[in-house]
Design goal:
The protein is mostly helical and 254 residues long. It has 15 helices and no strands. The structure holds magnesium ion. Magnesium ion (MG) binds next to helix 2 and helix 13. Magnesium ion (MG) binds at residues 34-36, 210-211.
Length: 254
C-alpha cells in the first residue's frame, strides 16, 4: 500500500502543470498525500476490519473536508442517499489496490474490486478500471512477468495496452476517467525496470498526475518493492494514525 501512497505524494505537486524536467526531485517540501491516499487507506480498513465500503469512503470524505474531493463524490458523501452515481471516474481505480494484496485468487480479486467500485462507480468503465488495477497488483505480487500481466489484463478486462510509453508521452492528455488513466498507468509499470523509473515516467505524462502515479505506484510496489529511501520520504509525510494502518495492513498480508 505504501507504493500507492508514495505515488500519490510524488504526483501531488505536478497536477495541472507541464511535466517537470526528467531529473526533478521526486519528493519536495510540499509533496503531500491527497484523497487518493485517504481512500486507499479506507479500502484497507474495510478489508481488515470488515467495515462497509459506503461507510468507509463517506467517512474519509467527511473527516477530511480540506481535501480537493471530486464534486460528485463529495455530494454523494454529504447526502444521506447511499445510491451509487454511475461514475466512470478514476477514483475507483486509485482506491482499490489493497484488494490485490488481500485476496487469494483472481476471481476473488475481481469480485471484491467490483464491490469496492460499485458503491459509487457502478458504471461498467468504473468497475473495469478498479478490476484491472487490483488484478495487476495481485498478479505482480505473485511474481507474474510483464507479458503475463499484460495478457491477463487484455483477456480478462479488454485493456490491450497497445500504446507504448514512447507514444503516450505525446498522446496522453489530462483526464479523470478510468479508461484514460488506468491503461497508461499499467503500461508504464510493465515497461519499467524499477519503482523509481515508474514514478519518473508517470510525471512525464500529461495526466491526473497524483492518481496515475498512485495506481502505477500500487502495481510497482507489487512488482519491484518500494526503495527504502522512497519509503522513508513517504512515511515522514504520513500522520501516525495512517502509518499505523499501513503497518497493520502490511503485517496482515505478509
Ligand atoms: Mg488526488
Amino acid at each position: 500500500m505504501l507504493g500507492a501512497i508514495a505515488g500519490d505524494m510524488i504526483g501531488s505537486i505536478h497536477e495541472f502543470c507541464a511535466p517537470p524536467p526528467d531529473d526533478v526531485p521526486l519528493f519536495q517540501p510540499d509533496s503531500h498525500f491527497t484523497d487518493d491516499t485517504l481512500l486507499t487507506l479506507a479500502t484497507a480498513r474495510c478489508l481488515l476490519d470488515g467495515e462497509g465500503y459506503t461507510k468507509a469512503y463517506r467517512r474519509a470524505c467527511l473527516e477530511n473536508p480540506e481535501q480537493a474531493w471530486g464534486l460528485r463524490f463529495n455530494a454523494w458523501a454529504q447526502s444521506n442517499n447511499s445510491e451509487p452515481y454511475n461514475s466512470l471516474g478514476n477514483g475507483s481505480a486509485m482506491r482499490v489496490s489493497p484488494v490485490g494484496w488481500w485476496m487469494n485468487s483472481e476471481n476473488e480479486v475481481l469480485a471484491e474490486a467490483e464491490r469496492s467500485a460499485s458503491v459509487t462507480h457502478n458504471h461498467p468503465e468504473g468497475i473495469r478500471g478498479a478490476q484491472a488495477t487490483a488484478l495487476a497488483v495481485y498478479l505482480a505480487r505473485q511474481g507474474a512477468d510483464a507479458a503475463t500481466i499484460r495478457g491477463r489484463i487484455a483477456t480478462e478486462l479488454g485493456y490491450h495496452l497497445s500504446e507504448p510509453y514512447r507514444e503516450l508521452i505525446y498522446s496522453c492528455r489530462y483526464n479523470e476517467v478510468c479508461e484514460g488513466t488506468v491503461p497508461p498507468a499499467l503500461t508504464i509499470v510493465l515497461e519499467a525496470d524499477s519503482f523509481e523509473q515508474v514514478m519518473r515516467m508517470a510525471l512525464s505524462l500529461d495526466a491526473d498526475t497524483d492518481t496515475l502515479a498512485c495506481i502505477a505506484g500500487a502495481v510497482a510496489e507489487a512488482r519491484f518493492g518500494v526503495p527504502s529511501w522512497i519509503e522513508r520520504e513517504t512515511r515522514r509525510r504520513l500522520p501516525q494514525e495512517h502509518l499505523a494502518l499501513v503497518d497493520r495492513f502490511r503485517k496482515a498480508v505478509s
